[in-house]
Specification:
Bound molecules: 1-O-pyrophosphono-5-O-phosphono-alpha-D-ribofuranose, guanine
CATH class: Alpha Beta
Strand content: 25-35%
Enzyme class: transferase
Number of strands: 9
Strand order of the largest sheet: 4-3-2-5-6-7
Order of helices and strands: HEHEHEEEHEEEE
Protein name: Hypoxanthine-guanine phosphoribosyltransferase
CATH topology: Rossmann fold
Helix content: 25-40%
Keywords: Glycosyltransferase, Transferase
Catalytic activity: IMP + diphosphate = hypoxanthine + 5-phospho-alpha-D-ribose 1-diphosphate; GMP + diphosphate = guanine + 5-phospho-alpha-D-ribose 1-diphosphate
Shape: globular
EC number: 2.4.2.8
Number of domains: 1
Oligomer: single chain
Distance between the termini: 23 Å
Length: about 180
């Protein structure tokens, strides 16, 4: 399928900016101090969930000033579409997880299936403690587990399809410098 770059450009121009770069960065700094209080002496292993978690995790890591290891996992459920399907593991964790404290970082907690599956995987692999941090929690009543929350949450957003700061629209605009909502979604 060929991609219509005029459409991609138009999507950005018509989108609503929900959070500016400054607002997102402020939320990430606040999360970093909350995470530091809980994990600073636990030698955690911090995973970015690719692709969407790349920007958030990268920014967050630079605000965590204590010993930790960082790596990534790649799991996807949306595959460049705007509604979710079955979780596909593209790259499972490469580290030994037994007895480790794990922090999983992702861009968005939407229905929560992705994060729940990754948490379950880490627990089954023998992790001592598994915590999660998400940049944005989308507010609606379709969570995989009723009342599901992340241990650390940066921002909340309404029930619309969003992109920017790592999150894509049809594979594009992960580089958008804030969090934007698609017109009409
Ligand atoms: O809470 P959920 O409804 O499970 O959705 C959240 C997940 O969806 C997105 O990933 P996606 O599958 O789109 O892959 P991507 O990270 O490569 O964009 C996002 O990065 C989260 O990992
Ligand atoms: N880009 C993007 N990915 C998602 N994955 C789950 N929800 C969303 C969303 O609103 N935007």
């Amino acid at each position: 399928m060929s991609i219509d770059l005029d459409h991609i450009q138009q999507v950005f121009e018509e989108a609503d900016c929900l959070y500016t770069r400054e607002e997102v960065d402020g939320a990430i700094r606040r999360m970093a101090s909350e995470i530091t209080e809980v994990l600073a002496d636990k030698n955690p292993l911090v995973f970015a969930v690719m692709n969407g978690g790349l920007v958030f995790c990268g920014k967050l890591l630079t605000h965590l000033h204590f010993p930790l290891e960082s790596s990534y996992v790649h799991a996807t459920r949306y595959r460049n579409t705007t509604s979710g399907g079955d979780l596909e593991w593209k790259v499972p964790p490469a580290h030994e997880l037994k007895d480790r404290t794990i922090l999983i970082t992702d861009d968005i907690l939407d229905e929560g299936h992705t994060l729940a599956a990754i948490v379950d995987y880490c627990r089954e692999a023998g992790a001592k403690e598994v915590m999660t941090a998400v940049m944005v929690d989308k507010l609606h009543d379709r969570k995989a587990k009723p009342g599901q929350k992340s241990d650390f949450t940066g921002l909340e957003c309404e029930d619309r399809y969003i992109f920017g700061y790592g999150m894509d629209y049809q594979g594009y605009w992960r580089n958008a410098p804030g969090i934007y909502a698609l017109k009409g979604h």
